[in-house]
Amino acid sequence: MMKTLSSFLILLLFVAPPLSVAAKRPVRAKHGMVVSADANASNVGVQILKKGGNAVDAAVAVGFALAVTFPGAGNIGGGGFMVIRMADGRTTTFDYREKAPASANSTMFLDEKGNFVPSRSQDGYLACGVPGSVAGMVMALERYGKLDRKTVLQPAVDFAAKGFRLSHEFADELKADMRDILKYPSSAKAFTKEGRPYDEGDLFVQKDLARTLQRIQRKGRDGFYRGTTADLIVAEMKRGAGLITKDDLASYVAVERPPIRGTYRGYEIVSMGPPSSGGMVLMEMLNLLEPFDIAGSGFGSSKTIGLMTEAMKLAYADRAEFMGDGDFYPVPVGRLISKDYAAERRVLLDSSKATPSRLLGHGAIEIKEGMHTTHYSIVDQWGNAVSVTTTINSWYGNKIVVDGAGFFLNNEMDDFAAKPGAPNQFGLLGGSANSVQPNKRMLSAMTPTIVLKDGQPYLIVGSPGGSTIITSVLQVVLNVLDHRMNVAEANEAPRFHHQWMPDTIQCERFGFPKDVIQNLEARGYAIRPRGGTLGRIEAIQIDRKNGFLFGATDPRGYGAAVGY
Ligand code: DON
Fold this sequence. Notes:
By secondary structure, the chain is of the alpha+beta class. Helices cover about 35% and strands about 15% of the residues. It is built from 21 helices and 19 strands. It starts with a helix and ends with a strand. The chain binds 6-diazenyl-5-OXO-L-norleucine (DON).
């Protein structure tokens, strides 16, 4: 008996998936790797890969699992973007961003005097866009997956129906938002023990959510956008004078779109286009920085930080002016991501001192008629790579659970520019490119990205963090490509952020050494250390030569890189 037990334990040591713990050492595997913000979900992904599923099957399974085990950001009531690079060379993206309801309008978040009322776009029913996640994941599975819906949704159904033990973090996060959750009886029913907070170690069962997931399992998108789930969503909307109708749900479509593509020092960048600003802003910053010797000026030096900050300002100024839903506004994508445009804009990039943001503004582009969150990265045994960022915007979205359906709705409407010059919850500005219009998708900053080296996937990366997503991705990309860090080092390294307006560098606590801060201040930069951290990157780096996959979860979170 003892012998069997000890050989079982030894076997476990060898086959049990390694969880990422050491901050500077990535998790290493040979066949497949899943890095997500939640260990249960990462394990689901690996389970699917081991069943013979590809990276897209695993991505969809992880997406649905996160909706159950990581409901602060994982969702079926929100939206997201999936960037895919298949082993045969095809690259594509799925846009399943939420859209404004048909009865939305440009003044819906303004008071009688025309002033923006942030609570209207951030809290409650009006804040909610028509969810896209189910449509997008089902479509991606049908077009690029190998397994059936039943198989990829089953782990999520099991977590919801049979429950799972709550981690310290899960219970803590629920407690932190208790006041908001108790405001809505449906949310209190699903996410509290009759009004009392759940504790670490409790078995958390979500019966309504299990039934919703089973409807999706059986009927695909119709299990969400029509029939019982749609009826429950519309009934919830009616309770709070929300705008989403049956028609809004039935007419929602996910869209497969070409990715944003560019190059940086010979590496190819594949990222998300409109309605995300992520790929365009990332590409513009990389183009601006390309001629500079970033490696030579060194990681974390005031010179490098100054350069990167100037590039961030220029690109975020363009974001505010030119970026929105490309189906509603002629976003000059080609020009914004071109090397020529970066060359023109670079004349404004003074690497020796801060140029005040108000003097920078956006570029001159002639428009011809003619974007709390979570990221996960997956690579399978064939070399297919998938990068997904998904969101309900704030943690627990608009805090409203659809009664009887068991999931939180988003508050994504706040990503629109409610009024020119009025910052949203991330301090982002915008104008007509991102104004509220019926059926339009709100601009996103989500930046799911795949970097190719010699034509093959090399780095799969992305992050939550609102406006700071794009600069977090930029920094991990530069850390790997320029500073030659391993993916875990790149992920752990301190981060900073500038978004043109407000004209300040935000840095992590202990992010910059004192003399670097003094140098930057002497050159005219305003620096504001943040209370919290910046971004939560889940990344994979591929070492083709030695046949290894390296996964790294951000030490700022409590996710897991699991490989086999
Ligand atoms: O799509 C966007 O850009 C935002 N809704 C993302 C929100 C987010 O990352 C919140 N997490 N910290």
